[in-house]
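Slide 14.
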Amino acid sequence: MSSCNSYCISYDRNKIIKKYGKNYQIHLNHSSIDFMNVYLDKENIKKITVNKNSKLVEIQSVLEPKYLLLAELNLDSLSKRPGFGKNKIESLILNGEIVSDEQMKNTKIEISAITNIQLLTQEQMNNSINCRMAIGDFFLINTKQ
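Slide 15: predicted structure.
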C-alpha cells in the first residue's frame, strides 16, 4: 500500500499555520516566505501543494502579490493629519490582535487582502466597553479571512 507524497489544500491561513507552520517550509511562487508574518489574499491563490516528503508547502498565486509593509507605516505622522485623531497612535491592531513592535518590522499584507482600515480614537475607545482607559488612538487593519 502506498500513499501520495503530495496533495493540494485550500487556503486557510490559520489552518496552514496550525498544521504546517512549525515543521514545514512555506514558499510563495517558489520563494521562501515567513508565513507567520504574511497575510495573503485568498482570491489571489491559484494552488497550494503540500509535499510530505520534503516538508514543503508551495503556494502559487494568480498574480504577483503587492504588499503593504507595516514597517513602512509612519503611525505618528498619521495622527497629525487633518481628519485623524489628535492623539498619538497607541497600537496597531491587525484582525483583532495587537501588533507588537517586533511584528511591525516583519509583517506584510497583500494589498488586495485588506478589507478595512480605520482609526479608532482615544475618545471612541474610552466610550466603549473596555477594561482600561486608552492613552492614544488605535489604527485598525482587517483582512479577508
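Speaker note: Residues 67-143 form one domain.
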